[in-house]
Amino acid sequence: MYHCPVNRTPLNKLTSIEGTVYPTIDGVPVLVSDPQRFLARHVHGMAGLPTESIDHLPIDAPDLISPFVHPRKYGAHGPFGTWLDQLGNSPTEVCTQWGHRYAPPGPVLDVGCGVGVATHQIARQGRQVWAFDRSPQSVLYAKDMLYGDLTSTPWPTWRGGMTLKSTNLETIPPDQVQFCVADAAMPPFAPHSFAWVHLGNIIDITDLGMAPIITAISELVGEDGIMTLSSPYDLDIATTPLSADPQAVLVDILDELGFDIVAESDHHPWVIRQYDRGFRVLLCHCMVLSRSTSR
Description:
By secondary structure, the chain is of the alpha/beta class. It is 23% helix and 29% strand. Helix 3 (91-102) packs parallel to helix 4 (117-123). It is globular, with a radius of gyration of 19 Å.
């Protein structure tokens, strides 16, 4: 993955949340179990922590800008560029449009927010949003992008090449979006806290499997709330000819948790621009779900 070379010195401050003291990085609370060890493993520069081999949790995009714009604006040439021009809505756009249509009033949670694409689209609807990711770097970049503190960033031009590019994002008021570092398997929120919970392509990248993540997150959906979810079912696991269809597995999990499918749609392109001659395209399945009223 491409990491933008921004010089950032984490601040070892403390914040108290519901009686528990958590460290913060640049004002972002780290709401994980054993946060001091987490920081020692994943973040440089935290004073007073034991020295461990730093394991950077990956940022979900090769650059910070392309996830926010339609692929037709990438400037690709030839038949592939023509094809990009004709692409329909991304999975993020589909899910956020559904949320705007189906979610009752109330706060929204963006699980695995990455660099903040869905968070940005949801906040532009006027919603109050909580957003978290397990990668501190992703959360800090998302915060800086959406708050307007990061106005330009490296843009890969060819393999190994880059230029600086303006972000040009519509900024979001800091009191409208709250960021934190957290683990989707152990979300730090009370049950039934959100009118709308969004999981955008998060179940594919966990090493725990789909069930623990969806089970933990489903508890956060309010009684009349909804959950939006997208996935290319690009699970990084060994398969055999007898492996179960991941879409069927997901539907079974949701049914056991008491969710009904309100709407679903398939083959929405998730385009990952790696540089001007390198792209990865995954076709995603999108769903909007509500708790069943007949059980």
